[in-house]
Amino acid sequence: MKKHSFSAVLLSAIIMLTSVLPISAVAGDVPVLKSISFDNAEIEGGFNQSIHDYNLILAENGSTPSLSDYEIEGDGELFVKYVCDSTNHQIAITAELKYDSGSSIYNFSFSGKSVELSSDNTLSDIYCPNCELDTKVTEGDYSYKLYIPKDLTQLSITPVTNDINAYCPPVVLSLTQAQEPEITLTCTATDGSQREYKIKIQRVDKTLAEVKKEMASDDYKTIVEGTRFYQQSEFLMLCACLAFGLLLFMVIFTVVKRKAVNPYDRDEKPFYKSSDNED
Predict the structure, then answer these.
(1) This prediction's pTM
(2) Among 91, 127, 145, 237, which is least packed by CB within 10 angstroms?
(3) Confidence band of 30 (pLDDT split at 50, 70, 90)
(4) What DSSP line would sit under 27-64, residue for residue?
């Protein structure tokens, strides 16, 4: 009886271990947001991955917070959205960490801001996951190119207003792999004045998976490198052929010019005599 009881207990323990270990192993593969920070704002009390709701203390009233830096442990992607109230004023930022088995959402509510009338209808940034703006948003420039992967079909653009109380609605588009539309972003200041930004979509010769891999690397600079028309092998080959053809033409022209027969023979006597030579 004792032997049978011991065997039963041992068998039960083995079954429990084999059923628990896979679950813990899977749980260990869930990505974690290790850190996150924002420009123009500070997280009250600091960031803790186990806490999902925060107050975001603004550095200055009127300055919109924007994502500064973050660190993910594991295979996941971070998506940032700006939350607005019924009057279209930005009141919070939501950061969602997405991964294969689900997602984790972190809310950052703005604190210490006041609504004041302003004519500032400009943007400080244009955020789009897995895409790249041709240059940083600057004052006085209202036309940009947004480079996206060649197979991207779901586009999500989040404009960041320079004045936190201004409003510019986000854009979500479904595209075919051939579409490269021009998008207009309209930023409205608190005094009602508006400004339009033109965003021309342009696809790079890289897939979404390739772009993600590049952006995750430590030496990442730009996804556009090597994809501009003048960096393509076909364009470079054409330039080389044109240069070689021009050089060949110049050589042939020089040789022909030197070897061409002179129609006048210096040793040949003149056929006609001048009147001065006649007796």
Answers:
(1) 0.56
(2) 237
(3) confident
(4) HHTS-EEEEEEEETEEETT---TT--EEEEEESSTTBP
